[in-house]
Amino acid sequence: MTREPTNGGGMAEAGESRGGDRRGQDRRGVERRRTDRRAPPPPWRRPAAFAAYGATAAILAVAMLRGCGGDDVDDRTAKAGPISPAPVAIDTAPTPARTGVVEPARTTADFERLTLEGPRAVGRVVVAQLYCDAPTPVALMPGVDTVEAAIAPLVDRQAQRVPAAECKWGQQDDPRREDFLLLVPPQLAAEFASQPVTLDGYIRRRRLLANVEWIGRSRALSLQTVGIFRGLGH
């Protein structure tokens, strides 16, 4: 008597025919589009690596360009020498022309007279009795932009200074002697220095009878009373 196969066996055979053997060479079976099991790319193929490649290439290009043109720039700089700042521009205030007449003004009373005459006395040449310290560079007032035309040639534009000597105007026995700033042109420095030195009170000063171009109060020199040495008087 022959036995017919049961329903369980038929179902197993049907399942094998539909699904196939899942233990074959590719275990993904029908799920071949899944990427979660793929290996990640190596470090040299990642976006950060490509960005680093670009930055390195740019740095190398800049270094090569500087290497090609740097020597010429250095040579031009060396030949030109150091760059110094330009001196400050100074305008000049007009002063009256000298008349050529030398007036006596040896006393403090003459000094006061010239001071009271103000602009009318500017440019006159007078003979004054002076007791002076040694000339030194005297600074112009900070921020000054205008000097008298007669003073301008004596200004060291870079240092903003003029050569000048602090003096006393008048005789030693005059109690009203006035302070006076005498500008000494470089070409007359030796003539100034040739005059004798004497004790003026307790201070050693140079005594000279000088021809002085009267300037009066100078804004460029902090409103000091100023004159220019124009040689020895008689």
Features:
single chain, 234 residues, alpha/beta, 4 helices, 10 strands, 26% helix, rod-shaped
What is the global morphology? rod-shaped
Domain count, please report it.
2
* Topology pattern, helix = H, strand = E: HHEEHEEEEEHEEE
- CA(first)-CA(last) distance: 171 Å
Helix content: 25-40%
Described by strand count, sense and barrel closure, the largest sheet is: 5 strands, mixed, barrel
Structural class comes to alpha/beta
Structural Rg: 49 Å
Strand order of the largest sheet: 3-6-7-10-9
Low-confidence stretches: 10-17, 83-88
What is the beta-strand fraction? 25-35%
Mean pLDDT comes to 79
Number of helices: 4
List how many beta strands DSSP finds: 10
Explained architecture:
With 234 residues, the chain is an alpha/beta fold. The protein has 2 domains: 43-78; 91-232, no CATH class. Helix content is 26%, strand content 28%. The protein has helices at residues 7-19, 47-80, 108-117, 189-193; strands at residues 91-93, 102-104, 125-132, 136-139, 146-148, 161-169, 178-183, 197-200, 203-218, 224-232. The protein has a 5-stranded mixed beta barrel. It has a two-stranded parallel sheet with strand order 1-5. Helix 3 (108-117) links the parallel strand 2 (102-104) and strand 3. The longest helix has 34 residues, at 47-80. The radius of gyration is 49 Å and the shape is rod-shaped. The N and C termini lie far apart (171 Å). The model is unreliable at 10-17 and 83-88 (pLDDT under 50).
